[in-house]
Amino acid sequence: MGSAAALASAPVLAREEARQDVRLPRQSLGASLRTVGAQFGRNVSVASDLVEGRTAPAVEGRYSLEEAVALLLRGSDLTVVRVGRGLAVRRAQAAAAVDGTVGADDDIVVTGSRIRGTAPAGARVVTVDRDDIEQSGYATTQQIVQALPQNFGGGPNEGTIGFTLRGNSNANLGYGSGVNLRGLGSTSTLTLIDGNRVALGGVSGMFVDLSLIPASAINRIEVLADGASAIYGSDAVAGVVNVRLRNDFEGAETRARFGSAKGFEEWQLGQIVGAGWSSGHLTLGYEYYERGNLAASDRDYVTEDLRPFGGPDYRKSFANPGTIIAADGSVYGIPRGQDGTRLTPGQLLTGQPNLSDGRASSDILPKQKRHAAFASLTQSLAPWLRFTAQGFYAVRHSEVRTTPDNYGNIVVPVTNPFYVDPIGTGRPVRVNYDFTEDLGPETRRADVRAWSANAGLEASLGQWRAELRGSYGVQRERNRTDNVPNYVRLAQALADPDPATAYNLFGDGSFTPRATIERVRGFRETDGTSRVRAAALKLDGPLFALPGGSARLAIGGELRSERYNARSVTFDFSPEPVDGGSAGFPIARRVKAAYAELSLPLVGPSQSVPLVEALDVSLAARIERYSDFGTTSNPKIGATWKIGGGLALRGSWGTSFRAPSFADIRTGPGTAAYIPLPVPDPASPTGSTNVLALIGSNPDTGPEKADTWTLGAVYAPASLPGLKLDIGYFDIRYRDRIANLGTDYMSFLGNRSLYGSLISDNPPAELLARYYGDQNFRNPFGIPAGAIGAIVDGRTLNLSSVHMTGLDFDLGYAFTAGQTAISAGVSGAWIFKQRQRITPTAPAEDVVSTTGNPVDLRLRGRFNLSNGPWNLAAFANYVNDYRNTAVVPAARVSSWTTVDLQLGYDLEEILPGTRIALSVSNLFDRKPPYVENANIFSASGYDPDNASPVGRLFALQLVKTW
Predict the structure, then answer these.
(1) Is 183 exposed, middle or buried (0-12, 13-18, 19+ CB in 10 A)?
(2) What is 763-832 written as a DSSP string?
């Protein structure tokens, strides 16, 4: 296959792009490919043995990159295929077998498969390539992934902390961001970097922190929204997100970006360099990102007083001036405009508590600074042996003002020199008081340091490949909360009779001596460290010939160890700092795995079978042995049937699992609690029954399991080039989900139809004796074992189940009119149902489009227009309406549509290799829809799971390739 074929394929492989003047002399092929790739600022990768000794012809004219490369390959047995945003040069015979939708070849492993050069049959891989990233206008990796319709914004991310307790958002120590495909939980999505697992973030290691990955270092993001435990093991229940870095970059690229929205600004600087030589390649990259905080005061809907929006007032009586609660429980507001030194009972506001908005001095998004760097090396050690290595390092500092943790019940004794008794009893009073004026806003600072490294050897054994790889990753997170009262020292200062040193809670403002304030200043601090080590051996290659090509097999084994350690220090309820103890940490597990995957191209185009242009089947199975809970095995089968005329059908079935987190199973003092207590019981003559409540983690917790079916179709007719319609159905049955209902124990006996499976009536004496003798047993009510009528199990257990069905789709069309290239399309996720049981005996309830769950329909429309050096990209993001079931009666939340726009220009005639782009996210500055969002700590008027508070953001970006 010569240049004619290569030239003909170029328009199919490439999106239409601006042509440039190309002038290349007759020289070595490798030098010409490097030069033209650097000129266009895109990767052109080629194995050194393919270009060694070859000479490229002179090329002069105005061409696209694909056209220029095809001319350079004229008369050779080489051709070009698209790989992400870049190009790869391959032998024509190998390239002919490539599935053009994913650009796989003999050297590429596509997400969803372990076999090189083979696309996973039956799977749909959504790819966000370098062009998509550049045109999105987004600065960070989490913003790019969160824009995908398949991703749900709930769970751990920097915007949910303090606004919701759902989905482990309160376990986000480092203020990171995870992926939550389908809304099934961040722990149910496996996130990889170049196919490798990395250390996890959050308490006990709950999620991969996407926000540490520099967006400028990403070549593409591959998303498989399908169960894939047969390929990858644990966590791949909802799917896999594989972030591919720019390992084959050639040349140098410098970028600078500035963004601004009402209330904050962000800066981004990046540099990447790459160089190849006859036997290897090296890429180095660095990115700096800084963003200011977004204050609640800059968004009127982030307030505890929701009356302007038709909601209730959630402000509390922890205010400044404060609120006095007399000995008989009556309430009196402290008047404004006085210092508390001469306050009399007659000045108090009877029955009028002072109210304060806890959000007033808080932040919505934290201030952040991040440094990230990566390196990638490839070196041939022999014609048949190659060494590869990759390293990644990131450090981030976050700082956010939070809503105050006011615990209340601050007792002011009569010895306090500022004491006022509203009712003249001469007894202590309580004061609800906001300490912000004294201590400053309660502030959390989170520091994250993460690094990972992997290295391997790849050997060519005839037509087979062998790969031995090892990796190691660490993520350490430190979270410290300052400006909190130390309540022990506060009590001492309140009892102090000396007005020069006593604490004054009775003024309007701060009127306590600074030295006293400093003595009562407390803090809380938590450190967590996650580590992962892994080693893997894989072999893959052809087995035998089939009508559609060679059957190919991948087999392998993996060893992995995971470890998490934590410590805490508190200084808020003790006279001196207190070490929090081990709390069951450190905890570790070891995992052994073996897998096999078989690709069977049963029919190929040359067979001329009616209605079967091609038929590919893949079979995979994996078995894993965990040191802490046992063995699990998972199979998967997939098939792709190309009917002809551009129509293809696909389908797959497989099982997946998620191993319990360390937080679910850890043991030790403080990790669980066994407490006898009376609870309401309608069946009891006394109205209550003494139960033994089991609360906390549970070492017997097992894995979550799922069965996933998918069916799909792709239509891309040759008669209408540029049209592609892709639609897929999914059916996920997720069972044995880990849940903790300990907070509901008071309702257990009164709602046996719901909680019956968690109640054990008349427990045997020997079982009670075992619990009563446990290190985690507490008996605050002094209830003997003989008085226990039931055990209620509120520990972490494999309780709930979910059945979800829906459609994913992507519809697009691209065409060229003269010198103008135009493309448009829409992608979306439409969830039909999400039926959930909170216990095995509870009735199933459809929770789709309700608070804390994904909405039934999310869309992202796109439009792109290119003409010469100009490029216009526009996106429309739609989130359907849903019900706020956290309030009674449930309230409707309006749909939300935002528009993003980018205008780019290539400054070739002024500064060759330079591109400037102006982006506007949320062009029309649409506010999030109103949601009455209240939890036990605070309230606000929007839902961070489904909306962003950033508003309209302008960004200017300059990219220079060298």
Answers:
(1) buried
(2) --HHHHHHHHTSTTB--TT---GGG--EEEEEEEEEEEEEEEEEEEEEEEEEEEETTEEEEEEEEEEEEE
Report the C-alpha gap between 629 and 644 in whole angstroms.
48
- What phi, psi does 462 have (nearest 5°)? 70, -125
Asked, as a colleague might, if the bond just before 889 is cis with ω within 30 of 0, I would say: yes
Q: Rounded to 10 degrees, what is the CA torsion of 847, 848, 850, 851?
A: 90
The DSSP 8-state label assigned to residue 405 in this structure reads: -
Tokens of 724: 């592609």
92-124 residue pLDDT tens: 543 333 333 333 334 567 788 899 877 889 999
Helices (H), 851-958: none
Token readout for 596 is 């096999």
pTM confidence score:
0.85
SS3 of residue 413 by DSSP: coil
- Structural tokens at position 823: 């493309």
Report the phi/psi class of residue 857: left, alpha or beta, with left for phi > 0 and alpha for psi in -120 to 50.
beta
Distance CA 461, CA 455 (A): 20
Give tens-digit pLDDT for 243-298: 999 998 888 999 999 999 999 999 999 999 999 888 899 999 999 999 999 999 99
CA–CA distance, 617 with 626 (Å, rounded to integer)? 30
Task: With CA atoms as reference, report the closest residue to 532 among 699, 377, 659.
Answer: 659
H or E segment and range at residue 906: strand 896-906
The residues with which 393 forms a beta bridge, in sequence order, are: 373, 451
Amino acid at 557: G
Structure tokens at 691: 């139960």
| 3-state SS assignment for residue 330 | coil
Residue 245: its H or E element: strand 239-245
Q: State the residue for tokens 């000396």.
A: 498
Task: Map residue 347 onto helix, strand or coil.
Answer: helix
Sign of CA dihedral 163, 168, 173, 175: negative
* 29-40 and 65-72 helices, crossing angle to 10°: 180
**Half-sphere exposure of residue 381, counting CA atoms within 13 Å on the CB side?**
10
- The HSE-up count of residue 856 (CA atoms within 13 Å, CB side) is 13
Distance, CA of 145 to CA of 157 (rounded, Å): 12
Location of structure tokens 């609640």: 296
Residue linked to tokens 């580590």 = 531
DSSP class of residue 937? S
Based on its alpha-carbon atoms, the radius of gyration of the chain, rounded to whole angstroms, reads 31
Identify the CA nearest to 135 among candidates 15, 284, 10: 15
Number of neighbours of residue 350 by Cβ within 10 angstroms: 11
Position 19 scores a pLDDT of: 67
Q: Tokens 């660095």 belong to which residue?
A: 286
Q: How far is CA 38 from the centre of its chain?
A: 33
The Cα diameter of the chain in Å comes to: 104
Helical H segments across 85-233, by residue range:
92-96, 130-136, 141-146, 229-232
CA distance 695 to 703: 19
Residue 743 structure tokens: 């907070």
Contacts of 663 (CB under 8 A, 6+ apart): 171, 203, 204, 206, 697
For residue 950, pLDDT beyond 90: yes
Domains of the chain as residue ranges with CATH? 3-96 (3.55.50.30), 667-848 (no CATH)
Per-residue burial over 538-554, b = 16 or more CB atoms within 10 Å of its CB, e = otherwise: bbbbbeeebebbbbbbb
**Taken in order 328, 334, 335, 340, is the CA torsion positive or negative?**
positive
